[in-house]
Amino acid sequence: MKDILQHINQFEATSLGEMNAIKLLNRQDTKYIFHQRQLPDILDDLCASYKMLEIDGVRLSAYQNIYFDTKDFTCYNMHQRGMLNRTKVRIRTYVESDLSFIEIKTKTNKSRTIKKRISLNKGENFHSGRIKTFVDANSPFLADDLTQEIHIDFERLTLAHKDLKDRCTLDLNLRATWNGQTHYFDKLVIAELKQDRFKHSSPFNLTLKKHKVYAESFSKYCFSFLELNDQLKRNNFKPKLQHLYKTLL
Class for domain 2-247, per CATH? Predict the structure, then answer.
């Protein structure tokens, strides 16, 4: 990690205020996965075009997430079947700032990602009245029906294009816990390019392509369950799972 920190620190810093200029709550997401050994060279190539988010001197930020699903795993199964207009419901906590949000993330049939969220106040939980009202009104599920919980934590680098054209993230040290079991995705980097609409000419996309990393779908939620629950259907995920294992060799 020390080697990676040296490459992280070469970026010009950007603030949360600047980052908010490109929130992109209605956007097109493009994902990539690659081995952590490629990260230093990729960071070196990105620093000319991107700034890196820094909050109180911290650039590699910790995220804690609790995802919710029905008892029969409706959210997972919709994704496994490739259905669009699918929704995920989660609590996301930004560890350094001690802020938490209830988020409802929808992938539409036009491949757009739409996110709605409200802050989670101290003393509130998923079944607090205000939170239940928000979930019931903005998702296809009733909060009371979302009984499965999986904890997914990672650390994130957030980049903003110097001309505010796009933003992107690089997630490391992914860890998933469910039903008393934990799986570590060692050496995996999950990258995501967030744009109003996908542009092949994005420096982020071109840099990854230079390093033979190409866009593909990847769900932290689904792949965590693939590792922790062998009772779930997985046929449609098998090629992606094989590619993941090959990437981590």
Answer: alpha beta
